[in-house]
Amino acid sequence: TLNATVNPKGLATSYRFEYGPTTAYGASVPVPDGSAGSGFANVEKANSVSGLTASTTYHFRIVASNAEGTTFGSDLTFTTPSS
Question: Rounded to two decimals, what is the model's pTM?
Protein backbone atom coordinates (compact mmCIF):
# COMPACT_ATOMS: atom_id res chain seq x y z
CA THR A 1 0.00 0.00 0.00
CA LEU A 2 1.36 3.39 -1.03
CA ASN A 3 0.68 6.28 1.36
CA ALA A 4 1.04 10.05 1.10
CA THR A 5 -0.49 13.34 2.22
CA VAL A 6 -2.04 15.94 -0.11
CA ASN A 7 -3.17 19.46 0.79
CA PRO A 8 -5.61 20.81 -1.84
CA LYS A 9 -5.22 24.38 -0.50
CA GLY A 10 -8.82 25.21 -1.36
CA LEU A 11 -8.81 23.97 -4.96
CA ALA A 12 -10.41 20.82 -6.41
CA THR A 13 -7.40 18.48 -6.55
CA SER A 14 -6.81 15.09 -8.12
CA TYR A 15 -3.99 12.71 -7.26
CA ARG A 16 -2.28 9.54 -8.35
CA PHE A 17 0.66 7.45 -7.22
CA GLU A 18 3.27 6.69 -9.87
CA TYR A 19 5.39 3.61 -9.26
CA GLY A 20 7.83 1.28 -10.97
CA PRO A 21 11.30 -0.27 -10.79
CA THR A 22 13.02 3.01 -11.81
CA THR A 23 12.35 6.73 -11.51
CA ALA A 24 10.66 6.48 -14.91
CA TYR A 25 7.86 4.81 -12.86
CA GLY A 26 5.65 3.38 -15.64
CA ALA A 27 2.48 2.56 -13.67
CA SER A 28 -0.03 4.50 -11.60
CA VAL A 29 -2.94 4.05 -9.19
CA PRO A 30 -5.77 4.82 -8.94
CA VAL A 31 -6.96 4.83 -12.55
CA PRO A 32 -8.51 7.26 -13.23
CA ASP A 33 -6.90 9.72 -10.82
CA GLY A 34 -8.53 9.97 -7.40
CA SER A 35 -9.95 13.04 -5.67
CA ALA A 36 -8.21 14.77 -2.79
CA GLY A 37 -11.13 17.18 -2.39
CA SER A 38 -10.90 20.96 -2.19
CA GLY A 39 -10.33 21.67 1.47
CA PHE A 40 -7.50 23.41 3.26
CA ALA A 41 -6.31 20.53 5.46
CA ASN A 42 -3.89 17.70 4.74
CA VAL A 43 -5.64 14.63 3.32
CA GLU A 44 -4.14 11.15 3.80
CA LYS A 45 -4.26 9.03 0.64
CA ALA A 46 -3.46 5.32 0.28
CA ASN A 47 -3.73 2.92 -2.64
CA SER A 48 -2.82 -0.74 -2.92
CA VAL A 49 -0.70 -2.09 -5.76
CA SER A 50 -0.50 -5.67 -6.97
CA GLY A 51 1.45 -7.79 -9.43
CA LEU A 52 4.81 -6.74 -8.03
CA THR A 53 7.94 -8.88 -8.43
CA ALA A 54 9.44 -10.45 -5.30
CA SER A 55 12.76 -9.13 -3.95
CA THR A 56 12.55 -5.99 -6.08
CA THR A 57 13.04 -2.34 -5.17
CA TYR A 58 10.31 -0.03 -6.46
CA HIS A 59 10.22 3.73 -6.69
CA PHE A 60 7.04 5.72 -6.09
CA ARG A 61 5.80 9.27 -5.69
CA ILE A 62 2.50 11.08 -5.37
CA VAL A 63 1.38 13.49 -8.07
CA ALA A 64 -1.30 16.09 -7.30
CA SER A 65 -2.97 18.35 -9.86
CA ASN A 66 -5.37 21.28 -9.68
CA ALA A 67 -6.11 24.53 -11.52
CA GLU A 68 -2.75 25.96 -10.41
CA GLY A 69 -0.70 23.11 -11.86
CA THR A 70 0.85 19.76 -10.99
CA THR A 71 3.07 18.98 -8.00
CA PHE A 72 5.31 15.93 -7.83
CA GLY A 73 6.14 14.40 -4.46
CA SER A 74 9.59 13.17 -3.54
CA ASP A 75 10.81 9.88 -4.95
CA LEU A 76 10.57 7.16 -2.30
CA THR A 77 11.39 3.45 -2.45
CA PHE A 78 10.28 0.14 -0.98
CA THR A 79 11.47 -3.42 -1.50
CA THR A 80 9.10 -6.33 -1.89
CA PRO A 81 9.72 -9.41 0.26
CA SER A 82 11.15 -12.59 -1.24
CA SER A 83 8.58 -15.13 -2.35
Answer: 0.93
